[in-house]
Amino acid sequence: VGAMLSVAVVIYAATGTPALAVPPAMAVGLAPRIFYQRRHARVVAERRAAWPEAIRDVLANLAVGHTLHRALCLLASAGPIPLRPTWQRYERNSAALDPVTALELVRAELADPVSDRVIEAFIAAHEHGRDVVVAVLRSLADNVTSDLQLHEQITTGQTETRSQAVIAVILPFLVLAFLVTANDG
């Protein structure tokens, strides 16, 4: 609030126009929220991007004879870095609870569509056995990889549109501020 008021006072003092002081003050007020939203989005994107590697790690551990539960526990120390803290909590939770309940806790913690699909596959694997799991996980790894590539293409396509929209919103205020300050001088 203090930063918003400071920006509003400084711009109002420079331009003498309240309409020019309000939008930048609001932008300053929303900056922390936008910062934390972007940071959260970056963390979620890193986790999503790590899933194909994590699934392949689980498949490799299953191929050498580990159980699914042990393969998931190994993700805590040898899995993709963005997912390690989650699997460390899974390992602790599965020691106190059953693996399916621990997986449900992981799904609730991650709470994104890609993670939900992967965790559902792991839960189904616990219920239906190892033979079914390998085929499902291979297919899931391929599907998640292609979904992530499609998501990246869509995001890249939207970046130009977003930057043009930001310019279209900011430019009129900058021109107006220039005109107001030029008329005062």
- Low-confidence segments: none
User: What form results from the Cα inertia axes?
Assistant: elongated
Radius of gyration: 25 Å
Number of helices: 7
Separation, N- and C-terminal Cα atoms: 31 Å
Sheet with the most strands?
none
The share of residues in extended strands comes to under 5%
From N to C, what is the helix and strand string?
A: HHHHHHH
- Helical fraction equals over 70%
The chain-level structural class is mainly alpha
Mean pLDDT: 87
Would you count the extended β strands for me?
0
Write out key terms for the chains shown.
mainly alpha, elongated, about 180 residues, single chain
Q: What features would you describe in this structure?
A:
It is a single chain. The protein is mainly α and 185 residues long. The longest helix has 55 residues, at 130-184. The model has no long low-confidence stretch (mean pLDDT 87). The protein has helices spanning 2-15, 18-63, 68-78, 84-96, 99-110, 113-128, 130-184. The chain contains seven helices and no strands.
Outline the secondary-structure elements.
Elements: H1 2-15, H2 18-63, H3 68-78, H4 84-96, H5 99-110, H6 113-128, H7 130-184
Helix pairs in contact: 1-2, 2-3, 2-7, 3-4, 4-5, 5-6, 6-7
Structure in a nutshell:
This protein is mostly helical and about 180 residues long. It has seven helices and no strands.
